[in-house]
Amino acid sequence: MNRQIRVVGIGVIVMFLVLFGQLNYVQVVRATGLDHNRLNTRLALAKFTTKRGDINSADGVILAHSQPTSDSFKYQRTYPTNDLFGQVTGYFSFTYGLEGAERTFDADLTGANAPFQLPKSLKDLTVKQDRSQTVTLTLSNKLQQLAKTQLGSRKGAVVALDPSTGAILALWSNPSFDPNPLAAHDQTQVRSYWQAQNANTDQPLLAASFRRRFFPGSTFKMITASAVFDKRPDLATKAYPQLPALPLPQTGGQVLRNFGGEVCGGPLPDLFRVSCNSGFAAIGLDLGAQALADEATGFGFDQRLPIDLPEAAQSLFPAASTFAHDLPGLAKSAIGQQNVQAVPLGMALVAAGIANGGVIMKPHILAQVADSQGQVVRTYQPSPWLTATSAQTATQMTQLMTTVVQSGTGTAARIPGIDVAGKTGTAQTGNNTIHAWFVCFAPAIQPKVAVAVLVENQPEGGEATGGVIAAPIAKAVLQAALQGP
Predict the structure, then answer these.
(1) Can you give the pTM of this predicted structure?
(2) pLDDT of residue 468
(3) Which end of the chain lies in a sparser environment, N or C, as judged by fewer CB atoms within 10 Å?
(4) Residue 232's domain spans which residues?
């Protein structure tokens, strides 16, 4: 009997120790993670009853504001510009947590990371201090509205940034969404709107500008041409044959055709100016898979974009080993097709890296944080992300890109009195449509703005090209950005 009592006693002690250990694990080890889980409703309730600072645009427009209410939540988060900045500000939702800038800068907006200040008087001890802080973004309301207007009802994205600092000036995607219904206090309304947005096949909650990938088409030729200067400069002067199509190796007669059946060839400058597919496919074969893959990695492919917004996508270029027995795939990849995929923000950074002498700065939307008294407590400090190429190659690429706008496929982006450097892209989707691209920066010397424009799923054939569809949008954004506030 005593032995049985001892066994039971030991069992109880073991279970107690296990329970004690589990409680400590949850309360100590996992406490921070559970407290900051964006789906933690207790945390959400606490946040809803705490004053939250505004989010403002660079030109002084309020993008997010907390309005006092008489209900149990105490504050209603509102987004006065509706869908214009929805994918940037994100939302502050009791049901679905935080997204976008609301999520990234949560500790700033609530003042959770604000420096502690001693009370100035005994009265301050009994009065809850306003610790909320205002977050000012680098984005311009003027440029964002212009990007929206220029893209119109067409699906796609417009990105504008400062190549010398990485500051994002515009980040628009169509379709977008209105954060106001997600921040509502009526949770039935919140869930209904959420379900409708998720059921939308156009994916408005997934910003095309920085969270989705597309075939980059001929805009990828910026990377292929850079690889020539960096790794095989002898190819820059090689005269490629004048062809309407390039016979592909390992295929038994298949060919890669030029757009519209045009005949083109010559050295690299001529191929780049007219965006010659047959010539660039041949360059890709001459470069080899490793050189092309390394250049793509150097320009940020296969790496998550380090923007201060959650869950940014990464551009993709296949590993060199995948081309060991697929030379046709290498030829197609050199012109931005096959399995090459790019994020619009990523292509803007490719242009920005060339504009900035080969150095890609970290993209960011934060300008500064100010306390409730208007005193600036934190300012974003620009920093490099990647050294994509040499200053010499960047200069050579700038010259090539300038000829594209002066007398090549991108003449629709010409701005009187300003040299614009650009590259068109017309990517075939395989569904009888094309993605129209234009990537550029200006002025060509001492650049101030880099822009990437994507217009999705345009009818294939005729005048449906990046130079016709996307270049005019980029021109309008460039002009407005260069004019200043």
Answers:
(1) 0.89
(2) 95
(3) N
(4) 217-364+383-483
